[in-house]
């Protein structure tokens, strides 16, 4: 049965790939579903308002975000919203800042509830279902056309590149492989039906950041799980897939191509010059698109700098450092083997996903603006922090 928190989170998800940032008459009526794609751009804002109203109506007196790194994301967002008033397009920047704030405030509401871990379980699984559907929707295209046909999401939802598609596949790989090796009984073999197409898609996508993250996540999962005979078969298969897709196909067997930044270094130099003009507070949300001729930053920390300046970037980096500090401070790499039930595989998945997104943050703007990365990462961060208090 759907709970109120589930509904709020679905509203937050519904804004992904919306076309509200292109709001005009032509956008609304350019296609049959144009109006729907514009309207759903307001759903995360609605979720934020409903979450705030719920907090005040229920008269929560504590601010539980101080218990998690979520508070640092909140401060980063607050600075970015303040800086948005000097953005070249103030309303656009404020809108994206509001989208960024929406999952933070919904999770604030969730953390105020009794048994917040149960709510986080549900939100994490909502994310898994959402990403699995998106991934499987690309499977026919992956089989028929390979990467050449990957540019539009199903139902005209929006556009996506192979890095984005590979990210969907890797999240599916992480949770399906983890459950395959941790759960017992016949039913858990159903995860093979998700694992195999996810492996096929990530190989087809040939995303270097995803394949690198795959390697990191795989090492984390195997270490946390401990010795398992199935690793004798999985390790060579996964290693070969990473080598084949990343080195032989994507890099064409050339080391120079493998380590190429694909133009990112030029964007980073442009960003550093722009940051010098407003180093303390930055230029507000979506500053890379609005001040660098619609360039994408492809680095979380430069994205944080150009949006929220040095002050905001400090909060952003602090959030990442704090959650990793929690993982090591509470000895999760040793204690996870003694955790029972659903929390056993969820904590393994959470740390593996954290590892993947930490790697991804060097080459993509992970969690520095409203998007899939942020909505996947935040619940796992809250989950790791809260579980550390429970075990």
Question: Key features?
Answer:
69% helix, 391 residues
Note the topology.
Layout: H1 4-14, H2 25-29, H3 34-39, H4 43-57, H5 70-83, H6 90-112, H7 116-137, H8 139-144, H9 162-182, H10 192-205, H11 208-225, H12 231-250, H13 255-258, H14 264-275, H15 287-291, H16 300-329, H17 332-335, H18 342-360, H19 372-390
Q: What is the terminal-to-terminal distance?
A: 28 Å
Strand-pairing-aware structural class: mainly alpha
**SSE order, one letter for each helix or strand:** HHHHHHHHHHHHHHHHHHH
Kindly provide the radius of gyration, computed on alpha-carbon positions and rounded to a whole number of angstroms: 21 Å
Which spans have pLDDT < 50 for at least 5 consecutive residues?
Answer: none
The total beta strand count reads 0
| Count of discrete domains | 1
Helix fraction? 55-70%
Task: Note the beta-strand portion.
Answer: under 5%
Largest sheet geometry: none
Average pLDDT reading: 87
Output the number of helix runs: 19
Based on Cα principal axes, name the global outline.
globular
């Amino acid at each position: 049965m759907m709970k109120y928190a589930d509904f709020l989170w679905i509203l937050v998800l519904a804004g992904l790939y919306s076309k509200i940032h292109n709001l005009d008459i032509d956008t609304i009526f350019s296609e049959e579903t144009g109006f729907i794609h514009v309207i759903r751009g307001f759903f995360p804002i609605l979720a934020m308002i409903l979450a705030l109203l719920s907090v005040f109506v229920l008269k929560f007196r504590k601010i539980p975000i101080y218990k998690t790194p979520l508070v640092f994301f909140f401060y980063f967002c607050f600075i970015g919203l303040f800086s948005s008033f000097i953005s070249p397009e103030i309303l656009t920047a404020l809108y994206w800042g509001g989208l960024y704030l929406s999952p933070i405030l919904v999770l604030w509401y969730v953390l105020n509830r009794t048994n917040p871990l149960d709510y986080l379980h549900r939100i994490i699984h909502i994310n898994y279902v959402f990403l699995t559907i998106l991934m499987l929707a690309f499977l026919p295209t992956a089989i028929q056309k390979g990467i050449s046909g990957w540019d539009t999401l199903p139902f005209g939802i929006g556009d996506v590149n192979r890095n984005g598609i590979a990210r969907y596949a890797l999240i599916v790989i992480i949770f399906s492989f983890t459950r395959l090796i941790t759960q017992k009984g016949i039913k858990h073999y159903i995860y093979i039906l998700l694992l195999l197409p996810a492996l096929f898609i990530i190989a087809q996508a040939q995303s270097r950041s995803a394949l690198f993250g795959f390697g990191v996540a795989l090492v984390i999962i195997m270490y946390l799980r401990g010795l398992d005979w199935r690793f004798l078969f999985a390790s060579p298969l996964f290693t070969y897939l990473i080598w084949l897709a990343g080195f032989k196909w994507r890099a064409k067997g050339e080391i120079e191509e493998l380590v190429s930044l694909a133009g990112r270094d030029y964007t980073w130099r442009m960003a550093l010059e722009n940051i010098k003009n407003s180093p303390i507070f930055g230029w507000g949300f979506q500053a890379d698109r609005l001040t660098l001729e619609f360039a994408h930053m492809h680095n979380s920390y430069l994205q944080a700098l150009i949006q929220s300046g040095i002050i905001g970037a400090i909060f952003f980096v602090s959030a990442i450092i704090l959650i990793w500090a929690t993982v090591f401070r509470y000895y999760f790499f040793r204690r996870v083997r003694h955790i029972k039930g659903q929390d056993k595989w969820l904590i393994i998945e959470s740390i593996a996903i954290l590892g993947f997104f930490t790697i991804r943050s060097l080459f993509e703007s992970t969690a520095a603006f409203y998007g899939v990365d942020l909505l996947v990462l935040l619940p796992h961060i809250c989950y790791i922090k809260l579980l550390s208090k429970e075990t």
